[in-house]
Amino acid sequence: MLEALQFEFMRNALWAGLLASVACGIIGTLVVVNRIVFISGGIAHAAYGGVGIAFFLGISPTFSAAVFSLVMAAVMATVTLRNKQRADTIIGVLWALGMAVGIILIDLTSGYRVDVMSYLFGSILAVPSDDLIMMVVLDVVIVAVVAFFYNGFLALSFDEEFAQTMGVPVKTLYFILLGLMALSVVMVIRVVGLILVIALLTIPPYIAEKFSVSLAWMMVFSTILSCIFSFTGLWLSYAFNLTSGATVILVASLFFFVSLLWGRARVST
Amino acid sequence: MEDLAVEVRNVSFAYDGHPVLRDVNLEIRKGEFLAVMGPNGGGKTTLLKILLGILKPAKGSVLLFGKHPGEMAHKIGYVPQDTNINKEFPISVMDVTLMGRLAALGSGWRYSATDRLLARQALERVKMWDYRHRPVGRLSGGQRQRVFIARALAANPAILFMDEPTASVDKEFQTELFEFLKELNTSMTIVVVSHDMAVLSSYVKSVACLNQTLYYHDAAEITDEMMEMAYHCPVELVAHGMPHRVLRRHED
After folding, report:
1. What's the pLDDT score for residue B231?
2. Contacts of residue B61, Cβ cutoff 8 Å, sequence gap at least 6
3. N vs C: which end of chain A shows fewer Cβ within 10 Å?
4. What does the pLDDT read at residue A112?
5. Strands (DSSP E) found in B195-236
6. What integer pLDDT is reported at residue A224 of this predicted model?
């Protein structure tokens, strides 16, 4: 592994893994405790529409995916707040619609398409330095916003109705949360691809929840776990020449099942 | 008008065209201890959410101390049903109690030393201070309810709303709870919403029965008309030995 670090792409990959882990740990924790995993999946897949638009118009895919995801997040937030019963159906439709728009627009775009795969399965080994700077900026925004509104997010997540009676603007916070989630999803897509984003957003917080005493610690533990999964996956993919995104998720899933078994064993003793 | 804590005028509410509340009128005086009784699905929770400002009535108006519920957040204490809580959530008893201070904070929501002191006093009042570091998910139903009461008290409320207070509490703790509410009632208005007749064995001063429409009675007893309207079946009432009369004597 150490000799691999002399390559810039490898150093960038490690940085990308670390930076994505911070976003995953913080936003993933809020996603898991608020039970909005399905929305995060919807946004991740709908983001492909943004990638399609970018290829069609010849603009930056990351920028386009970010804008498109933000719009989708706003629509999904509105739908869930207006009609909780039907929300999952509508999110499912948007999920598929985004993918379909992306696929059709890429069909309509002539030329080289190898980049498209990197959005589906991630390309942590090909993260340019510019993207790393963007990831740092996004991490700073996420940490700052969540730290500032921490007690509001905590109240919203634990007991939304009580938070409302206390005058906490839960709807505004919910929009902010989905917005941050959309941006995080686009960032994590760089690392593991949009198909596997949900796993990296949910597995670390799920494991962390079991031994966390507060939401803040759950965010910290999730970030650390996410780092461990990313680095281990990256090392395995380098050593055995495997697809990096899938290897990262395989490592995470392995930990997930071990934690399940460990939890069971602890309960039965 | 000065002494009214709650004023509900001609409130109606419907979910997807299905009416839940019809033309509800209710006045609650300050210092009142009201039990809103009624069958499940009779609109109790909906009315409670309207009083708390969580739902907006489709028709009619609600005033808390002469103002809209949204403006009165700092006067409201709310104790929800235990079942609505995610027991896996990583949060300590102290952090839950502090949430009662949210209405009094600015937009940054930072707790001050005063907030912590008020949370501590509230926890001591319900005898849960020793459990302050414990995750709420690892408490018993009765202990968790105490914490939720502490959270409501930390807000220093003028009115306390409780949703199904007897639901996850054993009989022994119920008596203790009712004594505690009686004591609280000396300094605040209390509204309890429940389908459980055991609530009537507490120190309620008046009863309202709700089944889409609301029938108010200015005494701690349920009249035959209320029974008829709300339940169509008075069996449950007669079963327990109540400390004071619940059913009015038949006049015939």
Report:
1. 56
2. B7, B8, B9, B10, B11
3. C
4. 62
5. 206-211, 213-217
6. 97
Of the candidates A151, A162, A168, which has its C-beta nearest B80's C-beta?
A162
A61-78 confidence digits (pLDDT tens): 888 999 999 999 999 999
The chain A residues in contact with chain B (CB within 8 A) are 33, 148-152, 154-155, 157-159, 161-168, 209, 212-215, 217-218
- Superfamily of domain covering A2-268: ABC transporter involved in vitamin B12 uptake, BtuC (1.10.3470.10)
> A151 and B54: CB-CB below 8 Å?
no
Better pLDDT: B29 or B109: B29
Concatenate the DSSP letters of all residues of A64-85 into one string. Answer: HHHHHHHHHHHHHHHHHHH-TT
Average pLDDT over residues A158-178: 94
Q: Give the whole-angstrom CA distance, residue B4 versus residue B63.
A: 9
Task: Measure the CA–CA gap between A161 and A168, rounded to whole angstroms.
Answer: 10
Virtual CA dihedral for A210, A152, A86, A119, nearest 10 degrees? -70
**Residue A211: closest C-alpha in chain B:** B90
pTM of the model: 0.88
Strand order of the sheet with strand B76-79? B76-79, B159-163, B189-194, B33-37, B206-211, B213-217
Nearest CA among B100, B137, B140 for reference residue B122: B100
Of A167, A168, A214, the CB nearest to B91: A214
